[in-house]
User: Which sequence fits this backbone?
């Protein structure tokens, strides 16, 4: 952690008052309804007090009163930038609990959609982050132009732009349209161009380098101790991705690399995410080639899905890190306990360690680099 | 300096491309066939009555409890014009609560409810939140006036295999009635 000596040199030690600055809850730099109280000494932040809970909607409690299939819609609303990833996690948790095996085709559909969703989430990050850094407009618009393509594609498949509610225990709700492969290839082709555009704007850009290099450096040991996961952890140099570490679904069939950074600073976090988009494109291309025909829903499912007594924890690699679902079942058609392990909530806990000792203007970038989604933090 | 020049090159290249935006109020993007607006009820033109029998399956499966339905005896059955024993009496759907999850469409045994795929997002502006609770007539209006074109419903038995296979109408009506009396307690 970079520490700055903020005593004034010379014999006159001036006494200064610490000032509290409220950032949020409604502030564009906080990416949602998040509030933090900064204690500043001049320009330097000496303490950060994050205050969360402004967007609490009971997304953990509500599914406890819902049937297993009804709860999928609430998972869309936890991490609302990576809905397919969250659905994928929950659906797999239910499958693990009830012993349903999803069909081959539906597994491929799920992986393709989840990877595309990872791309949209990272595009959102790059766009929003570039506005934090101060290159407002350009990179944001470029990122959103391409994100729109994928969202249109999702709309053609599921009918919704944001809250898809498309995966089901045992498969997916309905089959993809006939022109799925061609449309997906077309979208992927344009996304590749879009990624290189974003690279051109951000990689090695002097503005970005000046503001991000060496800022809020984090060591791997620190990151692990804070429970940080996802791109933030990989930026510190650790090659840890749940898709490789404990391959769920069919991820062990694909070839892809885990991009890592060196210093664990903010620049690395951005680069890791841009590289991850390319790896997602690779996975989608491989999955498109191998996607078989066949049924999209497992046979012999009952109208009311009852889980045997037991508990299960399922975790997936979301765009922000490890997204986990913990379910306790007591033999009824609804879970007794339903808990979500949200990646950005755990990453946010390291905010104080990352930002103490930095300037006020840099705290905005540090918060942006965590890529918080308040729906997931507050649930 | 090099990085900034590279960034400038990217933006200059984009200046030559066609714009991707649409001039919204005058031009509109075409909605995909599967577009999911809010749920609406379907009108049976052959029998001149709604498909909905008021069996309350949608109300029970709705995760946010936005549907209220009641059932009555079908007067047309007595007159011999229709096969439906029961018919919907009241149907209230709170659009302010609805989260457009499509579950009501999937569980409906009579294909009586579909997601509106003509919704453009402006038709539902109201001055009062209470006005978003629509009744049966308002929900049927889209279908009855023929403005609802070719709604998307998955082929039967595919999406429903998650919930249940379809059964014959009359059997299901009786089954539902039985469960209605016995199952609720």
Assistant:
């Amino acid at each position: 952690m970079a520490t700055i000596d903020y005593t004034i040199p010379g014999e006159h030690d001036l006494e200064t008052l610490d000032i509290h600055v409220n950032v949020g809850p409604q502030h564009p730099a906080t990416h949602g309804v998040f509030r933090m109280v900064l204690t500043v000494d001049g320009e330097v932040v000496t303490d950060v007090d994050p205050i969360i809970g402004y967007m609490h909607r009971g997304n953990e409690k509500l599914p406890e009163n819902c049937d297993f299939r009804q709860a999928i819609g609430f998972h869309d609303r936890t991490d609302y930038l990576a809905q397919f990833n969250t659905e994928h996690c929950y659906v797999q948790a239910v499958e693990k609990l009830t012993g349903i095996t999803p069909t081959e085709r539906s597994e491929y559909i799920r992986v393709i959609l989840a990877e595309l969703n990872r791309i949209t989430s990272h595009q959102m990050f790059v766009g929003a982050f570039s506005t934090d850094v101060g290159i407002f407009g350009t990179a944001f618009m470029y990122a959103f132009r391409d994100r729109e393509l994928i969202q249109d594609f999702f709309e053609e498949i599921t009918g919704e732009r944001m809250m898809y509610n498309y995966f089901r225990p045992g498969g997916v709700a309905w089959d993809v349209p006939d022109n799925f492969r061609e449309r997906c290839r077309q979208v992927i082709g344009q996304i590749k161009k879009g990624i290189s555009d974003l690279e051109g704007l951000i990689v090695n850009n002097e503005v970005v380098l000046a503001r991000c290099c060496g800022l809020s450096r984090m060591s791997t040991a620190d990151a692990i101790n804070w429970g940080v996961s996802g791109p933030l952890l990989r930026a510190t140099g650790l090659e840890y991705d749940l898709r490789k570490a404990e391959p769920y679904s069919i991820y062990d069939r694909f070839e892809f690399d885990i991009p890592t950074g060196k210093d664990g600073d903010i620049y690395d976090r951005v680069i890791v995410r841009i590289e991850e988009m390319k790896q997602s494109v690779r996975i989608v291309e491989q999955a498109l080639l191998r996607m078989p025909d066949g049924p999209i829903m497992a046979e012999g499912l009952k109208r009311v899905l009852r889980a045997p007594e037991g508990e299960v924890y399922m975790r997936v690699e979301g765009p922000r890190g490890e997204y986990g679902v913990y379910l306790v079942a007591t033999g009824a058609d609804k879970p007794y306990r339903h808990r979500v392990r949200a990646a950005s909530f755990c990453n946010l806990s390291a905010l104080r360690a990352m930002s103490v000792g930095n300037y006020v203007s840099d705290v905005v970038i540090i918060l942006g680099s965590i890529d918080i989604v308040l729906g997931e933090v507050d649930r | 300096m090099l990085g900034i020049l590279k960034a400038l090159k990217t933006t200059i290249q984009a200046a030559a491309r066609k714009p991707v935006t649409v001039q919204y109020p005058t031009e509109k993007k075409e909605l995909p066939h599967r577009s999911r607006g809010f749920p609406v009820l379907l009108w049976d033109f052959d029998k001149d009555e709604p498909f909905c029998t008021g069996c309350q399956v949608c109300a029970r499966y709705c995760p946010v409890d936005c549907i209220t339905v009641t059932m009555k005896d079908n007067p047309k059955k007595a007159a011999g014009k229709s096969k439906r024993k029961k018919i919907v009496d009241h149907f209230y759907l709170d659009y302010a609560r609805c989260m457009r999850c499509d579950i009501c469409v999937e569980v409906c045994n009579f294909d009586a409810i579909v997601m509106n795929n003509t919704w453009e997002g402006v038709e539902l502006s109201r001055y009062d939140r209470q006005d978003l609770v629509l009744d049966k007539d308002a929900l049927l209006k889209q279908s009855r006036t023929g403005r609802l074109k070719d709604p998307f419903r998955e082929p039967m038995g595919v999406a429903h295999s998650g919930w249940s296979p379809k059964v014959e109408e009359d059997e299901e009506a009786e089954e539902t009635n039985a469960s209605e009396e016995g199952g609720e307690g």
Notes: The beta strands of chain A are 19-23, 26-27, 32-33, 35-41, 44-51, 167-168, 171-172, 310-318, 321-329, 337-341. Chain A touches chain B through 47 residues (CB under 8 Å). The longest helix of chain A spans residues 104-133.
